[in-house]
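re: that chain from earlier
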Amino acid sequence: MTLPKFDYAEPKSLRQASALLRQQRGKAMLIAGGTDLLQALKNRLKTPALLVDLKNIPRLDHISYSEKTGLQIGAMVSLRQLANSAVIKEKYPMLVEAALAVGTAQLQAMGTVGGNLCQDSLCQFRDRSPMARLMLEPCLKLGGHVCHAVSGSNKCWANYSGDLAPALLALHARVTIADSTEKKKIPLSKLYSDDGKRPTRLRAGQILTVIHVPPPAPHSGSAYLKLRLRKTIDYALLGVALYLSMEDGDAVCKDIALALTGVGKAPFLVKEAEQLKGKQVGDAEIAQVAEAAFKQAHPLSNIGGLTPAYRKEMVRVYVRKAFGVALESAGQDA
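^ sequence. v structure.
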């Protein structure tokens, strides 16, 4: 299919990019790698009047690391660049796992960190060609008044399935949001709206520019596990990211964060995992966290593949498996 007509701009600064976005009053969109956006344009799911390309804005494609302040990732860093970074391989292997879980090698070469974090939510009742959409009444995400995934709901239940978000949530990441007048740093969790229609809280003119990750603690371990039908291309039907650090020489947990994707309108942290801080991590404690994650997961039939019941049941399995991998990488017996 052909692309719709739109104007195109290549600003040289964040100030210029933000001003262009604000001037269009919601009719402009950012383009980074374009791996998701171009398909949505072809299917007329999005019809912006203007595309604002970020590729010529300086330093958005840089990675830096300090033992004191941690990691900084520019929003225009490609997924392949992230996965190939020596410091990330050494210090943050879970980010490598998550980046390499996205799509194919070609998509990883084009897709960006910022684009992956800000990707749109998915729904098989909406993400189809214009002709196929004629079979259904327009849904909430397309300006209609129904949700085909949850009959009778006045909320859009489109599914968020990004891979980097849960890994970065588990690593306590923060993000810098810039507009034409200021920059502010917020926890990554505050970026997401839990609204399928508009999955991020970014307003017109706001741009995600940098991701900040604190330095890893000693004796730490992590894991990112992804459930999908195929090893490439597929979005996460379930993604589980776990980060933990342990006391030296025993099985007492100092810090822990568990995040899920693919089973709700937004990626989210399982707060019950934090109750393990200062405690021994054994089978019973792991089972309790897995059960809490199971209860908070709400997979629906709005993305193709495995049934919602199976995906929900696999939450327990993947959380337990993630603990085994993370504890082993932290130098503990799983």
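The longest helix spans residues 308-329.
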